[in-house]
Amino acid sequence: MLSNNYTNRLFGRTRGRSKKKIDLKKYYQTVAKYKFQNCDEKINYILDIGTGYGETSIFLANQFLDKVVISCEKYIDGNIILLKNIEKNKIKNIRLHNGNVYDVLECIHRECLDLVWIFFPDPWPKNRHAKRRLITSDFLIKLHKILKESCDICIATDSTIYIRFILNSIYNCKGYFQWLNQSEMNLNIKDYFDIETKYYKKAINSKRNPSLFILRKL
Which residue of 8, 57, 101, 137 could cross-link 172, Cys pair, CB 3.0 to 4.6 Å? Predict the structure, then answer.
């Protein structure tokens, strides 16, 4: 059962800078309809971490109709957009966790994940904030324990600082994963997936080329 007894704190905003008021009671009532509660042994899951405005979760749900996407995001404004799209398009295979991804990891006790996506996690570029970064070797090893054999983790970022950090994390757990696209000349997301999220477009408009890392469980 999902709990909030995690020891790993996640940082970042839960609301946008807009002063637009939202009905939080109505929001949480809608979240409850799609809330991820526990891990069903009969279901295969995809974990989408830090979904922003929900584009990746919608994409994955449409690509993998036979699986359930766990959309993990604490950003309320983004979740509101995701929920509207779920209901508008009658999508039935998304479950939402409005909070810390470690809540989800701690309630999964078997290898049930077919895929993990982590697109544009907060890079926390300042050195004093480095400990806030999600992707570490310890975190990847946690995912390894609940990822099915030969299944993948896909990580995307446009931050050169975070790229170096991710590379170091991959190296430190090289016995756990094969880096599938290590020898590719181009690590661009569009070479693999036909998706453009808000953060992808923001990177392109700022002339930053997002890189994609694909890790397969050994």
Answer: 137
